[in-house]
Amino acid sequence: MLNLFLVYQFLKRLATPFKEWEAFKLEIIDAEGNILRSRKSFTKVKEREAFGAYDLMVLNLKKLLGKIPGGKSRIASYAAALYLLKEWNHFSDESLLTESVSDYKILE
User: Fold this and answer.
1) Residue 80: CB partners within 8 Å, gap ≥ 6?
2) Contact at 8 Å (CB) between 39 and 51?
3) How many other C-beta atoms can be found within 10 angstroms of the C-beta atom of residue 30?
4) Per-residue model confidence as pLDDT tens digits over 1-37
5) In Å, how far from its chain's centre is CA 60?
6) pTM of the full predicted structure?
């Protein structure tokens, strides 16, 4: 259930324009996704919650997708999110590395 929530949050942030992010409202990033203030300069808890490592990862992926021709459009963001959702379903419990996987199983 947690995996589904994380996938939903990831896809939601990927499809949301930078202007609607909480980090934009707190003037941490601009409308293009450029970082205006470093995380070291955050003094409030609200700022730390608005722009963490997870948000930075989504921001970088979103900017990378924007470099593809037509990738900055909102439709392209939705298409990328749907494609990632389609790819997410291909994983099963057997195909993932977990703590219960032994060296013997990896070498098979």
Assistant:
1) 14, 65, 71
2) yes
3) 13
4) 667 787 788 888 888 889 999 999 999 999 999 999 9
5) 8
6) 0.66
All residues at 6 or more sequence positions from 78 whose CB lies less than 8 Å from its CB, including other chains: 15
What is the gyration radius of the CA atoms in the chain, in angstroms? Answer: 17
Tokens of 11: 């896809």
Phi, psi of 91 (to 5 degrees): -85, 145
Q: Which is nearest to 8 in space by CA: 54, 50, 49? A: 54
- DSSP state letter for 35: B
Return d(Cα 28, Cα 37) in angstroms, integer: 5
> pLDDT tens for residues 47-93?
999 999 889 998 998 888 878 777 667 777 777 777 766 665 555 55
